[in-house]
């Protein structure tokens, strides 16, 4: 039997053999709903080419959900989306894929170090990365670096995985450093040519 909380959830939904609405899914996931939602949202942005038309609304959705999580509120999903159905076939595909991911993760030490404010820090970082996603910049890695940070930290929270948390924090530092460099470079270019 797997000790992966996320794998058990995917297996449970896949085994039902029927569709489930996003609203019902949110209600069943409880506290983990915020993190699982941002995991799914981050996936399209993991590749280096930015998606400006998609990144702004989905980045806002990440910001709203992390703000709701920090305020201990339920996951916010637009009404139109809450009735959207997810097929059992999709859950089965996700389950099969995540089984492979978990196979790799289980080889790494997953004992978590207890940080008093660790989850709050993770949520704040995810919120800031969501803000970065909202910027419609046609520059490589401006979506992928924040998305990897979001994915790693959200997975770390759901799986209670120490290594993923540290990788998420390293990814966050790289993301913030990259955006800081872009801002400084653009400022220098503007000053140079003005």
Quick overview of this protein structure:
The chain has 194 residues and is mostly helical. The chain is built from 9 helices and 2 strands, in the order H-E-H-H-H-H-E-H-H-H-H.
Overall description:
The protein has 194 residues and is an all-alpha fold. It has one domain. The chain is 70% helix and 2% strand. The chain is built from nine helices and two strands. Strands 1-2 form a two-stranded antiparallel ribbon. α1 runs antiparallel to α6, α7 packs antiparallel against α8 and α8 runs antiparallel to α9. The longest helix has 32 residues. The protein is globular, with a radius of gyration of 18 Å. The model has no long low-confidence stretch (mean pLDDT 82).
Keywords:
single chain, 194 residues, mainly alpha, two-stranded antiparallel ribbon, globular
Task: Count every helix, treating DSSP H or I runs of 4 or more residues as helices.
Answer: 9
| Structural class by SSE content | mainly alpha
Question: Which percent range describes the beta-strand content?
Answer: under 5%
What is the N-to-C succession of helices and strands? HEHHHHEHHHH
Number of domains: 1
Please tell me what the overall shape is: globular
With strands numbered from the N-terminus, the spatial order across the biggest sheet is 1-2
**Helix amount:** 55-70%
Q: Compute the average pLDDT.
A: 82
For the largest beta-sheet, the strand count, sense and barrel status come to: 2 strands, antiparallel
Helices, strands, pairings?
Blueprint: H1 5-15, E1 20-21, H2 22-29, H3 33-42, H4 52-70, H5 79-82, E2 85-86, H6 88-105, H7 118-134, H8 144-159, H9 162-193
Antiparallel strand pairs: 1-2
Helix pairs in contact: 1-6, 3-4, 3-8, 4-7, 7-8, 7-9, 8-9
């Amino acid at each position: 039997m797997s000790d992966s909380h996320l794998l058990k959830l995917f297996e449970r939904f896949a085994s039902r053999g029927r569709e489930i609405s996003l609203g019902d899914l949110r209600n069943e996931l409880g506290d983990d709903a915020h993190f699982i939602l941002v995991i799914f949202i981050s996936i399209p942005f993991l590749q280096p080419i930015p998606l400006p038309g998609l990144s702004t609304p989905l980045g806002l959705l990440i910001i709203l959900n992390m703000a709701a999580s920090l305020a201990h509120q339920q996951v916010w999903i637009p009404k139109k989306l809450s009735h959207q159905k997810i097929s059992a076939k999709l859950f089965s595909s996700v389950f099969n894929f995540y089984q492979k991911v978990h196979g790799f993760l289980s080889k790494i030490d997953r004992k978590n170090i207890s940080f008093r404010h660790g989850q709050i820090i993770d949520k704040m970082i995810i919120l800031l990365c969501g803000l970065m996603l909202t910027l419609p910049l046609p520059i490589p890695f401006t979506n992928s670096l924040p998305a990897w940070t979001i994915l790693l930290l959200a997975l770390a929270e759901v799986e209670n995985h120490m290594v993923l948390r540290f990788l998420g924090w390293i990814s966050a530092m790289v993301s913030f450093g990259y955006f800081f460099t872009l801002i400084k470079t653009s400022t220098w270019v503007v000053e140079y040519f003005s």
